[in-house]
Amino acid sequence: MASGDFCSPGEGVEILQQVCSKQLPPCNLSEEDLLQNPHFSRLLLSLSQHVDESGLSLSLAKEQAQAWKKVRLHKTAWLRLEILQRIIQELLVDYYVKTQDTKLTSEDKKFHETLEQRLLVTELTQLLGPSSQERVMPPLLGLEKADLLELMPPSEDFVWMRARLPLEVEEQLKKKCFTLLCYHDPSSDSDSETLKAAKVWKLAEVLVGEKQQCQDAKSQQKEQIVLLEKKSATYSQVLLRCLALLQRLLQEHRLKTQSELDRINAQYLEIKCSAMILKLRMEELKILSDTYTAEKVEVHRLIRGTVWRGPFAYKNRTWRSPDRS
Predict the structure, then answer these.
(1) Which one GO biological process term can you cite for this protein (predicted)?
(2) Strand partners, 51
């Protein structure tokens, strides 16, 4: 195996910092793992040139970025149509609410009625689906598009309504933008309409900046979580090593310490036993000294001497009192 195939300690740290932490998806690897598997470190370096942070190949990541770009374009177009549709529906709802409280002018009534009629006919036409030649199933309620087109408002009213519609939509959108601005910045509620319009003009940039800050914070949080997991794994390994070392120390030194402790305990018990024996002997001597005085001992000695001479010794001996000389 060539020396160039091995991973030195400095290279291991560099691979961990540049490749494993940034270019490749988060992986729980340590420098010791790279040192024990030298070819694996080379494999990581080669893979980092062909994959991105998510683990996709560079070509596939490029295709995915283009696909997402198309999706965003279609989503933007759909959102524009959806917003316009909802704004028109809200215009009609506001019109019916106003008819209950205030008196509207004839132009307002004509505008909203023409708009509603055109919207309903358009929606019903879409519900019918394709033309009769392309349709497989019979039409809904037996209606054809020609039947619905007869319900269209007059062309003059439609042209007049269409010319006024952008102004109404713009006014409704302006109200919504001001509402969104006041929600985002409540202090803007007391500003003038011109100042609000200027703030709304920059609101998109502000929201994009805040979104970018949130994304940066999320990425930093993700990096911190990965770092925390690595530190937790490292600390766990260190703790396990410490526990193994403590266990080994206990196994090696516990018997020696226990034998020394047993020897000390045996010496202590031996000394304590000797002290107890001496104390008992002292108590015994104290009892004897209190029981037998010097006079009693002398009398007992005379009695013992007389008893040992035999019964015939009293014939030729006169008894003397111990007090006589």
Answers:
(1) spindle assembly
(2) 57
Structural domain contains residue 168: yes
pLDDT, tens digit only, all 325 positions of the chain: 333 444 454 555 555 555 555 555 556 666 676 667 767 767 777 777 777 766 677 788 888 889 999 999 999 999 988 888 888 888 888 888 888 777 778 888 888 888 888 888 887 777 776 655 555 556 656 666 666 677 777 888 888 888 888 888 888 888 888 888 888 888 888 888 888 888 888 888 888 899 999 999 998 998 899 889 888 888 988 999 999 988 888 777 776 777 788 889 999 999 999 999 999 999 988 888 888 888 888 888 888 888 766 554 444 444 444 444 3
Domain annotation covers residue 169: yes
Residue 173's nearest CA partner among 109, 76, 86, 75 is 86
Query: Residue 104: inside a domain, yes or no?
Result: yes
Q: Angle formed by the axes of helices 155-184 and 193-291, to 10°?
A: 40
Query: Could you give the CA distance from residue 267 to residue 108 in angstroms, rounded to a whole number?
Result: 115
Q: Are 7 and 38 in contact (CB under 8 A)?
A: yes
Domain tally, the chain: 1
Give Cα separations from 67 to 52, 73, 78, 208 (angstroms). 17, 10, 16, 22
Q: Is residue 149 part of a domain?
A: yes
| Residue 57, beta-bridge partner list | 51
How far is Cα of residue 68 from the mean position of the Cα atoms in its chain? Answer: 30
Tell how far CA 146 is from the center of its chain: 62
DSSP alpha helices (H): ranges in 102-192?
106-128, 145-149, 155-184
Residues 59, 64, 67, CA angle at the centre, nearest 5°? 130
> Which structural domain range is residue 93 located in?
86-190
